[in-house]
Fold these 2 entries.
Entry 1:
Amino acid sequence: MGRNCPICNTKEKEKLFDIRFAFGEEHPLAKKNDIVCCNTCGFVFADNDLNQDSYDRYYKELNSYSEADSIKYTEDEELFPKFYFSLLRKFIAINESVFDVGCGDGGLLSILKQNGYGNVYGLDPSADSIRTLERKGVNGICGSVFEIAALDLPKFDVVISTGVLEHIFDVDGYIKNVLAAVKSDGKIIVVVPAVEGFEIKYTDLPNYFNHEHINFFSQQTLDRLFAGYGYYDISNEQSRLVTEPNGEYILYGVYSKKNVDTHEIEKDDSSRKSVLNYLEKYSERKKEKEEKYKKLSLDKYILWGTGALATQFLAEFPEISDKIEFCIDNNKTKQGTRFAGKMIYGSDYLKSQNINLPIIICSMKNGDAIVKQIVELGLKNECIIL
Ligand SMILES: [Zn+2]
């Protein structure tokens, strides 16, 4: 397929596996991604024939982050922003200007502001996110990171990018735009999921490999990417792998321009090894899931959850799409649209219709919370968590 290695730009790569998605014809993203490993540098990434425009269209038209944030079942919505703040604050001086690219609802920026950082600014493609950010008293601009170089913004001391780089098809274009926003002696702080953690902390496949996550960095490959632009980590930490409050591993780097003698960075073997070890665990779980699903042999059911897990589940078992009566999703932006050709409704519809079909719950993290919601609605439907 079409993607050169986003880090070293070579073509030769080894396919590790592929993932399929039950997208309709109109969906801008690929129905299949090959997960490949670069033969030259060892970087693991998703390969398909798309380009950045397809992803821009997807995030503009179909992405539902800002809505999804309001329906998370977490107790403390500031849990993750607080965690990121405690992780990164030592790298940001109180008088430095900060620009968070892909800031979402501005959780991190608003905590920085509460802690005395006076010059903080956000960028996000979602107008809703920017409105939420401004309600929190933080200034922001609505736009794509690929527009930064053209926006003629002032230069910042610190540019932060958390949970963005793993989504980017055109990695080179992204880095060049980020570099356009930072002062020549400034810092770029990057946080991404750590591929080294995949083999340690098991989660369902779509949590790590889904249609949105297409770059899988290790500390070595992330450093190699930035070294290609003359930027090196200045954090002075041996390992920059840490666990998030949910136990998943992330990786950070604090990159600054340095004149160092160019040296060959060795090929990374940890990424491929971690992914293959993860796959071994996954195939065992997949067998269990298949047995569970085959025992069901239902004629009709209701599907609750139309996110990444459902997208991959239906692609693996296409015969069950026909058995879906309709879908339920708490995400209001999805209600009234279709998934796998079936209508998506809110839970109020389920209550009003009083249809006693079994409910298959397709949610990676909120399965138990959804069962609780069904009980609280007073419904007696049988629930199966996948
Ligand atoms: Zn490479």
Note: Confidence is low (pLDDT under 50) at residues 65-73.
Entry 2:
Amino acid sequence: MRYLFDHWDKVSSKIKKSPRIFLFFDYDGTLTPIVSTPEKAKLPSKVKKSIKRLIKSPKFRVAIISGRSLRDVKRMVGLKGIIYAGNHGLEIAKPRKALKNSPLKTICIALKSGLGHIKGIRVENKGCTLSVHFRLVRPKHRILVKKIFYRTLRPYICSKSAKVSSGKMVLEVRPAIDWHKGKAVLHIIKKKKTLPIYLGDDVTDIDAFRAIKGKGISIFVGGPKKNIKADYYLKDTFDVKKFIERLLLL
Ligand SMILES: [Mg+2]
């Protein structure tokens, strides 16, 4: 993985040559630093201003794809003229039929009753998916959280009615349908002739990196990582801010 700014000449000339650029951003950990609770992850005002300027340019389109619910990510960003996708992209595509039979509600109740006694735990039902946040749980109790989580989910995983994944201090449950951030990206760009650029910091973003392989530019946020395949990396959310500002100068 190469550091984006070390190869800026090459990347910027590719961007300059493309008449249309589709920028995809993950939210938490990409546009905003990771903080103790999801409510505190405010979009820095400078970043917001730069994105606002980007959308005004006819060259750029912007989409934000988050693990948050659609309503939540829209509220956190609060900008018009952006494509928003919540629940890892499930909420733009709305594969309704599969979701109707989703056992998420039952799972949510089971998780709340199983985990409720652990201090700092937060079970969040996001409609199409649910998240168990344990950042505020004392480190020595985190193993217990995972144990209870997987014990509760085992029957659903076995019957292929739910899928689980884990991110930074969060465990997630989604309906077992074949959908992820990568498919959401391809769904959004469809056949449009544009250069997609995707920025993300977590394992759920890898599907998107893979989806645009050979078609666009994938950028991992959080330093070089051996097990993650992306075209380039940026060190942190501060670098992302710098990247957006550089785009505005092109
Ligand atoms: Mg993220």
Note: The chain is about 40% helix and 20% strand.
